[in-house]
């Protein structure tokens, strides 16, 4: 006979848990739809400027200052990134949902109007009006399934932009709430 430590109370039953799903692309997508992430645009310059929206930006090391991000090898930007020496990283503000959508949209003219940009350090396209930007020297491209993990050492940047960050959650661009 099991005795409850508190007379009159029955021992709590463990909560029912759903059976785990097997690992795979759909499970990974489902889990990461629930993970809020900051939104960045990665740019590079080949014969033409390229760029894409990324939520995989990570600070890797402070000394030396190093960042990483993932890029799909089927991305239209990959051929340029595969050869580029430097990349631009742009942290977007909540007022830049349309810019994020433009750089996420396949076939879009990402550097045409209304996108405002200029040639920054190392010839990298730098976007106007972002919260912060960095230029990094690519030091490695690590194979990771259908993606490459790009590591870059920071060589220049600016963090003087105003506003609050743009987030990506549940398949949408969102603003941070208090």
Structure overview:
- One of its GO terms (biological process) is pyrimidine nucleobase catabolic process.
- The protein has 178 residues and is mainly β.
- Helices cover 12% and strands 40% of the residues.
- The chain is built from three helices and twelve strands; from the N terminus they run H-E-E-E-E-E-H-E-H-E-E-E-E-E-E.
- The strands form three sheets. A seven-stranded antiparallel sheet has the order 3-2-6-9-10-5-4. A three-stranded antiparallel sheet has the order 1-11-12, covered by helices on one side.
Task: Name its key features.
single chain, 178 residues, mainly beta, Pnp Oxidase, Chain A, three-stranded antiparallel sheet, 3 helices, Flavin reductase, riboflavin reductase (NADPH) activity, FMN binding
Overall body shape: globular
Sheet-strand content, in percent, reads: 35-45%
Q: How many domains?
A: 1
Compressed to H and E, one letter per element, the order equals HEEEEEHEHEEEEEE
At the first level of CATH, what is the class? Answer: Mainly Beta
Report the structural category.
mainly beta
CATH superfamily: Electron Transport, Fmn-binding Protein, Chain A
Residue windows where pLDDT falls under 50 for at least 5 positions: none
- Total number of helical segments? 3
Strand order of the largest sheet: 3-2-6-9-10-5-4
Helix content: 10-25%
The termini sit apart by 50 Å
- Using the CA coordinates, give the radius of gyration: 21 Å
**Remind me, CATH topology?**
Pnp Oxidase, Chain A
Query: Main β-sheet, in a few words?
Result: 7 strands, antiparallel
* Tally of DSSP β-strands: 12
Protein name: Flavin reductase
InterPro entries: Flavin_Rdtase-like_dom (IPR002563), NADH-dep_flavin_reductase (IPR050268), Split_barrel_FMN-bd (IPR012349)
Domain Flavin reductase like: 32-175
Pfam family, one: Flavin_Reduct
């Amino acid at each position: 006979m099991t005795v409850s430590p508190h007379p009159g109370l029955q021992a709590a039953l463990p909560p029912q848990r759903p059976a785990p799903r097997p690992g795979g692309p759909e499970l990974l997508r489902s889990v990461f739809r629930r993970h809020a992430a900051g939104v960045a645009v990665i740019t590079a310059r080949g014969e033409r400027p390229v760029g894409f929206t990324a939520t995989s930006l990570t600070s890797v090391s402070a000394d030396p200052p190093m960042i990483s991000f993932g890029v799909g090898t089927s991305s239209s930007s990959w051929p340029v990134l595969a050869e580029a020496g430097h990349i631009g990283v742009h942290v977007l503000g909540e007022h830049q949902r349309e810019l994020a959508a433009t750089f996420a949209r396949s076939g879009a003219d990402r550097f045409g109007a209304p996108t405002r940009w200029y040639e920054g350090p190392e010839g990298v396209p730098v976007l106007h009006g972002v919260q912060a930007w960095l230029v990094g020297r690519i030091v490695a491209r690590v194979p990771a399934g259908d993606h490459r993990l790009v590591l870059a050492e920071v060589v220049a940047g600016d963090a003087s932009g105003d506003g609050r960050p743009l987030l990506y959650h549940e398949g949408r661009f969102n603003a941070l709430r208090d």
